[in-house]
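Try this one yourself first.
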């Protein structure tokens, strides 16, 4: 739903995963071959991807100061099983965490979260507060207090609801 720029670095993968489900319509791109291919998933990977997606959504809601949208497996539990390795670039000596082997979706997400922690971008990665949206977005506002994925859609709807409630 968002017209925002994609999240920085590896968070773009996390954003793509969380935003595979449009809560307003119920459309889930993980139901399609094309949607799964975008994330490198086979059909048998979908249940685990959905569990990871909803744990991520709950975490992103927490970043925005909101309770989880429903009970989920804690994200830390899911990422704890992710096989990661430390890589070191021989050219400049820089180190990074990377998925081990082929890199399952969970391992790729764990590496992206680790990269975002180091870069200081993880806490600005949020979920829209609109109950019928919860789209993932990266908050680039100066104060880091963004609330909606889109001011033109979700923000405008919330403001209109508040206005109408005041007028009644």
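Now uncover the answer:
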């Amino acid at each position: 739903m968002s017209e925002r720029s994609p999240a920085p670095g590896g968070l773009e993968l996390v954003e793509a995963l969380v935003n595979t489900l449009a809560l307003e319509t119920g459309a889930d791109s993980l139901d399609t071959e094309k949607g799964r291919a975008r994330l490198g998933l086979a059909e048998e990977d979908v249940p685990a991807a959905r569990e990871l997606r909803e744990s991520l959504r709950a975490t992103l809601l927490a970043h925005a100061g909101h309770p989880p949208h429903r009970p989920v497996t804690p994200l830390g539990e899911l990422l704890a099983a992710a096989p990661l390795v430390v890589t070191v670039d021989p050219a400049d000596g820089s180190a990074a965490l990377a998925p081990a082997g082929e890199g399952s979706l969970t391992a790729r997400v764990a590496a992206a979260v680790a990269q975002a922690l180091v870069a200081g971008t993880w806490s600005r990665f949020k979920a829209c507060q609109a109950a019928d949206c919860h789209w993932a977005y990266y908050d680039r506002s100066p104060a880091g207090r963004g609330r909606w994925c889109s001011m033109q859609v979700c923000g405008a709807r919330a403001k209109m609801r508040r206005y109408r409630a005041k007028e009644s």
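Discussion: Strands lie at 21-22, 27-28, 84-88, 95-99, 125-127, 136-138. The longest strand covers residues 84-88.
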